[in-house]
Amino acid sequence: MTNELEIRPYTAADGVAMMTNLVGKSKVSSDTCKWCTEAERDGMAFTVIYKGTMVACAGIVKEREGVGLAWALYPPDIGKHHIDPRITRDKLRELMAEHNFWRIEATVRCDFPTGASYLRWMGFEKEGRMKQNEPDRTDSFLYAIVDECKRCGKCCYKAYFDEKGNITKTTTKCHHLTKDNLCSVYGHRPDWCMTAEQMAELNLLPDGCGYQGDK
Questions:
Q1: How much is the pTM?
Q2: Residue spans of the chain under pLDDT 70
Q3: Can you give the pLDDT at residue 148?
Q4: Which of 154, 161, 132, 130 is nearest to 143 (CA)?
């Protein structure tokens, strides 16, 4: 994370401020304020600050066991900030692991390409079209992030990038791996750590890994 970028826990005040900037103070209803407060209470959201300016709020609402619905508030021109998508994507995956979600869904209007781009930017994949899903009976696209990790921890023994960027194989367990086989520093893991996607491309994933289908 750079000095220009900060990710902090979401507050209701953040949500109200973002909604005020998006639609105007007069259109921020009491129901909206209540929703913003509930999102803070749930503790499954974060706020992105770039160069001292709030540029996005995002989080998860639990739908059912293991499945959540993602939400986000952001200005239409968020792309101008050129924020590394891995930072917010990793924070979302960190929340997934912390709250034991294996699937996060999100919908976006079919006539809102900026929203679809934002979801792809966050690591969501499009799964299909939902007919008449919006309040005005227009269609939506369904996107989702599915956690393929089986918590075996084996990938954290396999390989890492050395100081020259070369791949080094190892049989030593990473010291950041917890007893539950989760990364204790996932949201800000070191540069030498290899992602599952990188290991899949290099055919380094352990047998039976859920990410092998992504190769």
A1: 0.71
A2: 1-3, 158, 160, 163, 187, 212-215
A3: 75
A4: 130
Q: Look at residue 3 in the predicted model and tell me its pLDDT.
A: 66
Query: Does 84 fall in a domain?
Result: yes
Q: Distance (Å, rounded) from C-alpha 131 to C-alpha 50?
A: 36
- What pLDDT is attached to residue 214? 46
DSSP classification of residue 191: T
Residue 90: CA count within 13 A, CB half-sphere: 18
Return the structure tokens found at 173: 């367990």
- How many independent structural domains does the chain possess? 2
The full length of the chain comes to 215
The token pair that represents 8 in the structure block: 């902090």
Question: What gap in Å lies between CA 47 and CA 36, rounded to an integer?
Answer: 12
Q: How far apart are CA 186 and CA 188, in angstroms?
A: 6
- Domain region containing 195: 155-205
Crossing angle (nearest 10°) for helices 12-23 and 30-42 = 140
What's the one-letter identity of residue 66?
Answer: G
Model pLDDT, residue 215: 41
